Amino acid sequence: MKNPAVKASTFEYITISLSALLLFFIIAPLVSLFMEANPSISVEMIRNQEVINAIEVSLEASILSVTILTVMGVPLAYILARRDFPGKQLVEAFVDLPLVMPHAVAGIMILAAFGSRGLLGGYLQDLGLIIEDNFKGIVIVMAFVSIPLLVDTVKVGFQLIGSSLESVARTLGASEWKAFTTITLPLSFKHILAGALLGWARGLSEVGALLVVAYYPKTVNILILEYLSVYGLKYAATLSAIYALIVLSIFIALRKVASK
Amino acid sequence: MTMILLENVSVKLEGFELNIDKLEVGEGEYLAVLGGSGVGKTLLLYTIAGLIKPYAGRVYIGSIDVTDYPPEKRKVSLVPQDYALFPHMTVIDNISYGLRIRGVPRSVAYEKAKYLARLLRIEEILDRKPDTLSGGEKQRVALARALAVDPKVMLLDEPFNALDPELQMEGLKFLKSLRSKLEFTAIHVTHNIMEALFISDKVGYMAKGKLVGVFGREEFLQTKYSEPYVDLVENLYRELK
User: Taking CB atoms and an 8 Å cut-off, how many pairs form between chains A and B?
Assistant: First the structure.
């Protein structure tokens, strides 16, 4: 007869070893980044107006993009969680498209659709929306690549709540809107916040599509690439470390809020 | 006076079809609807509540044609099988939800909730959240919440299903006494014949998405539809002997 205790410890040994290996894979580059960063260059960089501008552009564009995306993504996630309709799978596939699309291709797609010579570019120009080398272009790129992370996370939140709570609320006198705002929204708040956080982080990390659509005004990612090619790894690593510190601080603070 | 009337109602949901030629429930009457799993009992309640719209036929509540009314305009309360208590609200907020949503001031809504809590003997748990309640307590909170809005009709979907047999009996007796005090009209769907016979004035029987008939309690026991239930009890008794 097999001894279940031995089997369990082998199982534990394998799972813990593989988990530790994966964690090392994440932590090692992070530690190396901070070791590569140069403190005296850091001080110089924090005072550099170009760096300050790039950090401002990155944070402002990512926050604006995730705000717009949340306003539009939450209703879409709700429809996908609650309704069945012909072509639903196709809609879900479209939502996940930015996740599987190579970043440069995503940039070309955005340019082809919304660029000044793109399909809708003429109309958008009339509305004052020019995306090439423009802050608005950065916002659009960041929102585009973040869609699947926000919509899919929020959709799971709505699915977990189920529809019976809303049904009861409706029979008790709540309109669809009231049932959503008093029952579904508060119960799915954590998922919405988690989705927004993931979307925000995804937007911040984008560089490939930005190189195609909006090189200017420079985001930090673009500036890091520029520093790498012009000044070398030490400068690029120092700016990366500063940026990583800022982003990680915000990310940890928001996660704490979300977990409350 | 007729409180609920369904005429030639047909509903489709995910390939399942419910067809009700006629269903009539008088004011103050308590109808139990019996039937096995998947015969459309819950769908019937959801159709009356307005949560699913029929593609044919008319639904009347208190002589008003409510077929095109949304659920919030029908004055119908639903107690679902899982009770669906709002997990982010305390018991008192759950009970008073329907009143608050209608704009009733908090103090007035809370007074009504406290009155119902006394009636349903749950005044000790008003400040607790649903996840800390027992099955029996959850059921009473769901009943209090449904009654708080003074509905014309109560729709109860297998309300004793999640309870153990002892609590089921206690719950049944309690619901019966509550009914004699408040005299509400109700449709109570169940697959339990004892429950149906104990609490109702009339028994409806459903099979394959159709309402086969509505009978008096004793009359129902004479029909062939009661045979599977009676046979089950007899077989069990024989096995035990």
Answer: 62
For the cut 70, the answer to whether the pLDDT of residue A197 exceeds it is yes
- Cβ separation of A170 and B50 shorter than 8 Å? yes
Closest CA to B163 of B136, B190, B196, B132: B136
Give the residue from A85, A171, A176 with the most B CB atoms within 10 Å of its CB, the best one to mutate: A171
Cβ contact B88–A167 (<8 Å): no
Q: b vs e for B222-233, b when ≥16 Cβ sit within 10 Å of the residue's Cβ?
A: eeebbeebeeee
Q: Could you read off the pLDDT of A160-183 as tens digits, one per residue?
A: 998 899 999 999 999 999 999 999
| CA distance linking residue A146 with residue A198, whole number of Å | 8
Residue A84 has pLDDT above 70, yes or no: yes
Q: B74-99, pLDDT tens digit by residue?
A: 999 999 999 999 999 999 999 999 99
| pLDDT at residue number A1 | 53
Q: Chain B residues within 8 A (CB-CB) of chain A?
A: 14, 46, 49-51, 70-72, 74, 76-78, 80, 82, 84, 86-88, 97-98, 101-102, 145-146, 149, 155
Q: Residue A168: which of B50, B80, B87 has the nearest Cβ?
A: B80
- For residue range A10-56, what is the model confidence (pLDDT) as tens digits? 899 999 999 999 999 999 999 999 999 999 999 999 999 999 999 99
In chain A, which residues have their Cβ closer than 8 Å to the Cβ of B51? 167, 170-171
Q: In whole angstroms, what is the distance from residue A156 CA to residue A81 CA?
A: 7
Q: Tell whether the model's pLDDT for residue A3 goes beyond 70.
A: no
Q: Say if the ipTM goes beyond 0.95.
A: no
Give all domains of chain A, ordered by start, each with its CATH number: 38-259 (1.10.3720.10)
Residue of chain A with shortest Cα separation from B98:
A172
What torsion do the CA atoms of B117, B120, B125, B129 make, to the nearest 10 degrees?
A: -90
The answer to whether A172 contacts B70, with C-beta atoms less than 8 Å apart, is no
- From residue A212, how far is each of A139, A149, A222, A224, B59 by CA, in Å? 14, 22, 11, 16, 59
Specify the pTM: 0.85
CA-to-CA distance for B198 and B159, rounded, in angstroms? Answer: 14
